[in-house]
Amino acid sequence: MLLENKIAVITGAGSGVGRASALRFAEEGARVVCADISLDRVEETVELIKKAAGTAVAVKADVSAEADVIAMLDTAAGNFGRLDILYNNVGIPTPRLGMRLEEHTVEDFDRLTSVNLRGVFLGCKHAVLRFKQQGGGGVILNTGSVAGLVGWGGTVYGATKGGVHQLTRAVAIECAPEGIRCNAICPAGMPYTGFMAAGGMPAAPEVLEQAAKTTGENHPLGRPITAEDCAEAAVYLVSDRAANVTGVLLPVDGGYVAR
Ligand SMILES: NC(=O)c1ccc[n+]([C@@H]2O[C@H](COP(=O)([O-])OP(=O)(O)OC[C@H]3O[C@@H](n4cnc5c(N)ncnc54)[C@H](O)[C@@H]3O)[C@@H](O)[C@H]2O)c1
C-alpha cells in the first residue's frame, strides 16, 4: 500500500482524473477528502470508494473561492487530523473546443484563469500554510496539460496551464527547505472524461468514438489517454517512492510532446 495512513485532498474528484485518482489513492490506503463543485458527483465517488472498503468524505468546494479552499482543507484536518497530500486537479476547458484566440472574450479569459490558475494558487498557498504549521513536510500535485508545454490550440486554456506549470516549479524550489514537494502531471487528450463535454462536445457515441480515434492518432503510442493513466502517475508522484522528486512536469501523453 503506497499511501497507507496518508490524508489526501483531491479537487475535481467528481469526474474523470479526480475520481480515478480518488479511487486509486483510497485503494493504496489513503483517507481521501473528495472535493468538487458538484456535490452529487463527488458523493458518488465517495460511495464507490466506500463500496471498495476505502475511507473518504465528500465536500462541495469551488476552487476559485478562497473560503471554499480553506474549508476543504479544514475538512481533512477535522475528519482525519492532518493534511499530507493536496492534489489540485480541477481544470475547465475553453468554453467551446477549437475556439481561436480572437474569439475569447475578457469574461472567458477571467473564468479560465480564475478556475485553472487562481484555483491552483489558492490550493498551493493554503496547503503550504498548513504543512508549515503541522511540520514534517507535505506533498502537492497539480494537473497541468500538454497544452501548457507546447502550442496546441486552446490558447488561453494553454496559458493557464503554463501558469500552473511555472507555479509548480516555483513552489517546489521555494518550499524544498521545508520538505514540501510539488509536481505536476501534464495529460494529453482524454476524450472519455467529462472535460470535452464541458467544452461543448456532443455526448453522442459516434462523436466520442471519432474524438477517441483522432486523439489516439495524435499520440505516438497510438491511443487516447485515460483518467486511469493519470491516476497511476499521480499515485507515484504523491507517494514516498517519489520522496526525492520535486518540480517535475510529467507528461502523461503517449509520447506527444517528445515527437
Ligand atoms: N480531458 C482532457 O483532454 C485533458 C487534457 C489535458 C489536461 N486535462 C486536465 O485534467 C484535469 C481533469 O480533467 P478531466 O478530464 O478529469 O475533466 P472532468 O470534466 O471529467 O472533471 C473535472 C471536474 O472538476 C469539477 N470542477 C469544475 N470546476 C470546478 C471548480 N471551480 N471547483 C471545483 N470543482 C470544479 C467538475 O465538476 C468535474 O467533476 C483538468 O485540470 C484538465 O484541465 C484534461
From TrEMBL:
Keywords: Lipid metabolism, NAD, Oxidoreductase, Steroid metabolism. Pfam families: adh_short_C2 (PF13561). InterPro entries: NAD(P)-bd_dom_sf, SDR_fam. It comes from the Bacteria. CDD domains: SDR_c. SUPFAM superfamilies: NAD(P)-binding Rossmann-fold domains. The keyword Disulfide bond does not apply. Belongs to the short-chain dehydrogenases/reductases (SDR) family. This is SDR family oxidoreductase. It comes from Amycolatopsis acididurans.
